[in-house]
Specification:
With 427 residues, the protein is α/β, with parallel strands linked by helices. It has two domains: 2-178, Rossmann fold; 198-352, NAD(P)-binding Rossmann-like Domain (Rossmann fold, 3-Layer(aba) Sandwich), CATH 3.40.50.720. Helices cover 45% and strands 17% of the residues. It has 14 helices and twelve strands. The protein has helices at residues 17-33, 37-43, 92-108, 129-142, 162-176, 197-216, 232-243, 266-276, 290-294, 333-341, 349-352, 355-369, 375-400, 404-423, and strands at 48-57, 63-74, 80-86, 114-121, 152-156, 224-228, 247-253, 256-259, 286-288, 300-303, 322-324, 345-347. The strands form two sheets. A seven-stranded mixed β-sheet has the order 9-8-7-6-10-11-12, with helices on both faces. Strands 1-2-4-3-5 form a five-stranded mixed β-sheet. Helix 6 packs parallel to helix 13 (375-400). The chain is globular. The structure holds nicotinamide-adenine-dinucleotide. The site of nicotinamide-adenine-dinucleotide (NAD) has 24 residues, from helix 7 and strand 7.
Length: 427
């Protein structure tokens, strides 16, 4: 790898383990595809990063100051696009690494967006609805100069949802003096959300899983699936794969998991979770821990919770044939290498979970046009875009011998590199 000496950065604040993982991926594919060294250097760091202090009056009357972030990695292809997460482990490096992944993902899917990400370091599960609303509104006010329908369009991520997006949209609109639905995606339908958006990420994961099964030529007709995380993405994926005849043998959430080698009754489990807010104590399976869940024997493992779940210390115990990365960066680079040597197919995050940003794009377009599509139209267009991306990646992987992750990165980065070359460098 050639890194320009003259622009060597000494101590960059975002260089956490998470960020360095994303950067290492870029370095690997840049070397493989012979990416121009100066362009490579430009892509190794975010374009801009904002850190904000967010004072919030808590229900006990005291003011607590939280830390929030918004990072734009690259905006050559269009406005920045990326989710906002609320979690105690949020930091600048994590947000910057995820923003980089968003750049590759939008480019890979052929969307007119750059990559962004945001977050607030907090424990959302220990906060009341009122506290979350005040936190969200003040954060929006602090980052208001960065966002806008032509600049940067946030969306939900971990522990944020439709309601969070409604508060952001309202705060932004009140500040500019008129209603701007297209400043966020993942909004409730009644204020300009798109039909099919809430299910889109899970729908995309389920689609990629079926494609992977076809390419891996699995012998079984009803593959056994294990899913870590049973929130928006994990639960919809489980529902759709169950409807396709797959056998979901185990699922988990932050409190632990449940296992039934004969297959879980997913409709009954969904009803249980909607009432109890957790999978634990579901009567149709035995309790297991999250660590045990990851190493269960199965055909397909779908991590749909956090990053960095499959690492060098647990990868040797993993017994599946296919991993579909529904979460962002759930497999770390050393584990990825190991899985490749063991011939485990890994469907990378920038493809597997791209259904969400794709339907976010549809929501943004519908908002700008003031014209809304039916759910069938949304799902059909999603399948078209996911289908094209899957086909390109599987074809390139077959032709070049690149693993799926590298093939996906190569396609995404090539498109972006072409755009940057054509636009040139200002001044
Ligand atoms: P969510 O908040 O709805 O659900 C997260 C789930 O993970 C919950 O069931 C939670 O209990 C579980 N979880 C949290 N910590 C865990 C742990 N330590 N072990 C096991 N389970 C744990 O979030 P989501 O929207 O479903 O997102 C899940 C993942 O998918 C995230 O990595 C997110 O970045 C990624 N993603 C989401 C979208 C989207 O549209 N929602 C799009 C792209 C990527």
């Amino acid at each position: 790898m050639v890194i320009m000496k003259s622009v060597k950065k000494e101590a960059v604040e975002c260089e956490t383990e998470h960020f360095l993982m994303a950067q290492k991926q870029l370095d690997e594919i840049a070397l493989e595809m012979g990416l121009d060294a100066e362009l490579h250097e430009r892509l190794r760091y975010p374009k801009r990063s904002l850190i904000v202090s967010i004072p919030v009056r808590l229900d006990n009357g005291k003011v607590h100051t939280f830390t929030g972030y918004r990072v734009h990695h690259d905006v050559s292809l269009g406005p920045a696009k990326g989710g906002i997460r609320y979690h105690p482990e949020v930091n600048l490096g994590e947000v910057a690494g995820l923003a980089m992944l968003m750049t590759w993902k939008c480019s890979l899917m052929g969307l007119p967006f750059g990559g962004a990400k945001g977050g607030i370091r907090c424990e959302p599960w220990n906060m009341s609805n009122g506290e979350l609303e005040r936190l969200t509104r003040r954060y929006t006010a602090e980052i208001i100069n960065l966002i806008g329908p032509d600049k940067d369009i946030p969306a939900p991520d971990m522990y944020t949802n439709e309601q969070t997006m409604a508060w952001i949209m309202d705060t932004y609109s009140v500040n500019v003096g008129y209603t701007v639905p297209s400043v966020v995606t993942g909004k409730p339908i009644s204020i300009g959300g798109s039909l099919g958006r809430q299910e889109a990420t899970g729908r995309g994961v389920a689609y990629c899983t079926r494609q992977a099964v076809a390419h891996a030529e699995l012998k079984t007709k009803n593959p056994a699936v294990v899913i870590q995380g049973f929130g928006n993405v994990g639960s919809i994926t489980a529902k759709l794969l169950h409807e396709s005849g797959y056998k979901i043998v185990a699922v988990s959430d932050v409190y632990g998991g449940i296992y039934n080698p004969e297959g879980l009754d997913i409709p009954r489990l969904l009803a249980h979770v909607s009432e109890m807010r957790k999978v634990a104590q579901f009567s149709g399976g035995q309790a297991i821990s999250n660590d045990e869940l990851l190493v269960l024997p199965c055909d397909i493992l779908i991590p749909a919770a956090l990053g960095n779940q499959i690492r060098i210390d647990n990868v040797a115990n993993i017994k599946c044939k296919i991993i579909v990365e529904a979460a962002n960066a759930p497999v770390n680079p050393e584990a990825d290498q190991y899985l490749q040597e063991k011939n485990v197919m890994v469907v990378p995050d920038i493809l597997a979970n791209a259904g969400g940003v794709t339907v976010s794009y549809f929501e943004w377009v519908q908002g700008l046009m003031h014209l809304f599509w039916t759910e069938e139209e949304v799902n059909q267009r999603l399948e078209q875009i996911m289908g094209r991306a899957c086909q390109q990646i599987f074809d390139l992987s077959k032709k070049s011998g690149l693993r799926l992750r590298m093939a996906a990165l190569r396609i995404g980065i090539s498109r972006l590199a072409e755009a940057k070359r054509l636009r040139g460098l200002y001044p």
